[in-house]
Design brief:
Layout (H helix, E strand, L loop, with lengths): L10 E5 L3 H10 L5 E6 L3 E3 L4 H5 L9 E3 H4 L1 H4 L4 E5 L2 E5 L4 E4 L4 E3 L2 E4 L3 E3 L17 H20 L3 H7 L1 E5 L3 H17 L13 E6 L10 H14 L2 E4 L2 E6 L2 E6 L2 E6 L2 E4 L3 E3 L2 H9 L9 E2 L5 E2 L2 E6 L4 E2 L1 E2 L2 E2 L4 H19 L14 E6 L2 E8 L3 E6 L1 H14 L3 H17 L11 H7 L1
Parallel strand pairs: 1-2, 1-9, 2-5, 9-21, 11-12, 11-17, 12-13, 19-22
Antiparallel strand pairs: 3-4, 6-7, 7-8, 10-18, 14-15, 15-16, 20-21, 23-24, 25-26, 26-27
């Protein structure tokens, strides 16, 4: 496909620079099209390791990189514009997106990859007491809560208050919840001992709550059992079949077969669910489509919207199927979607038929703690490969190093992990002083 001199190139807008949006931009960079990438932040984030920033294992630059730096090669083609801006509306009829400053950007084709947000299942008031983990801002807030919990326990004057500060509850037994719980117990048992005078950090009580009967529901039953066993060996109190009914500043109330129980805990972390970006609802209202329970938009096999072939939705915002199965909201799926819609847009421009999206499931990984993980992979010719324990942890480590953006990130993460493994130290424990406290001191 070649463009005539001075021809007006098709205008493509990509909303969101997560895994899907980034992959779409990279694929479109090779085509004669004009691409504008919009994102609320100025960085691409490697979300699978976000919990490591939240638990002081890694500094933010290790898992994030400026979008302009990540796409510097694509910028050299002269057909890519990157704007830090928030999309507040999509004018479907006029084919334009509306930005937070009122500006309108016209498009010929649109890729919506705005990702997901934390979801408290209708209990938004829980957010103040149980923060979720989706952004760097979330990670910094959780890190401050965890570090300050031990500091407040050190200052406590009675045993009940002290233990409440040393009780940590993680709600949600998916990969994020399991990783958070395992890391918190390791911090208490290995990183902080001997750093306080009045408390023994090893008395910290980490509870993992899951509403289903097993953690890590996406894995095979044998790996679910292995994961639970590894968590309990680390010292995590795993409670399944527990439905949370209330969360307050003082703790969590849960309902199980044995009745209702309240656990006093001043640090509660939410890893129980996410929902599609609110932009999905905006787009649904504009197109007359209905979102599912997670706020996702139904897409056609080629990932476009019914009746609107020029609008494509990918990643956590899309309710898509492949080979009759729902496509999971994981980074490999988002990347594959990004490449698919890029190819389909070029096909539409050239007058060719689009192709249906086919998801290649490479498996699932979850780390549990130091030298503990589970791996479930589909190996061509060999079938399903299942690993647990040290072998799975080594595989998990190298897989995440491979997928990190940029050599600098891989190098520094490798150094940090090696140091942490040998010393149990966590060098990213510095937290900013709250603004209120700073102003009071001044």
């Amino acid at each position: 496909m070649s463009a005539a001199p001075h021809a007006v190139l098709p205008r493509i807008i990509v909303i969101g620079c997560g895994f899907g949006g980034l992959e779409a931009v990279r694929a479109l960079a090779r085509a004669p099209v004009d691409v504008t990438l919009l994102d609320r932040t100025n960085h691409h984030l490697f979300q699978p390791l976000l919990y490591q920033v939240a638990t002081a294992g890694l500094a933010a630059p290790a898992i994030s990189a400026p979008i302009r730096h990540v796409l510097r090669r694509e910028m050299r083609g002269g057909r890519l514009t990157i704007l830090q801006a928030e999309v507040v509306d999509i004018d479907v009829l006029a084919r334009a997106v509306v930005l937070d400053d009122g500006a309108r950007l016209p498009f010929d084709h649109l890729i919506v990859a705005a990702g997901a947000v934390n979801h408290w299942f209708g209990h938004d008031d829980w957010a103040a007491h149980a923060p979720g983990l989706k952004t760097l801002t979330d990670a910094f807030a959780i890190r401050a809560r965890v570090v300050q919990a031990f500091e407040r326990a050190e200052r406590a004057n009675d045993e009940v208050t002290r233990q409440a500060w040393m009780n940590f509850v993680v709600i949600g037994g998916g990969p994020t919840g399991v990783e958070l719980a395992g890391t918190l117990i390791e911090i208490a048992h290995h990183t902080l001992p001997d750093e306080f005078r009045h408390i023994d950090s090893r008395r910290a009580h980490v509870v993992l709550l899951e509403g289903a009967e097993q953690v890590l529901s996406a894995f095979a039953p044998t790996l679910q059992t292995s994961a639970r066993r590894q968590l309990e060996k680390l010292g995590v109190d795993v409670r399944t079949g527990q439905r949370v009914t209330a969360i307050s500043a003082d703790g969590v109330t849960m309902q199980s077969a044995g009745g209702e129980v309240t656990l006093l805990a001043r640090t509660v972390l939410w890893a129980a669910g996410v929902a599609a970006s609110p932009l999905a609802k905006t787009l649904a209202e504009a197109t007359g489509l209905a979102t599912d329970r997670a706020g996702r938009l139904p897409v056609l096999p080629d990932l476009s919207l019914a009746g609107h072939p020029h609008i494509n939705v990918i990643g956590d915002m899309a309710s898509a199927t492949s080979a009759g199965k729902p496509v999971p909201g994981v980074s490999p799926a988002a990347k594959q979607m990004g490449r698919c819609v890029a190819a389909n847009i070029v096909a539409r421009i050239e007058g060719r038929a689009t192709k249906a999206f086919h998801y290649a499931d490479y498996g699932n990984l979850a780390t549990i703690g130091r030298s503990s993980a589970i791996v479930q992979l589909e190996v061509p010719g060999l079938g399903l490969l299942r690993l647990s324990g040290l072998a799975a942890w080594v595989f998990w480590l190298f897989a995440h190093l491979y997928f990190l953006i940029g050599f600098r990130n891989r190098f520094f993460v490798m150094i940090e992990w090696a140091w942490s493994y040998l010393s149990f130290a966590r060098s990213a424990r510095v937290v900013a002083q709250p603004q209120k406290a700073a102003s009071q001191r001044d």
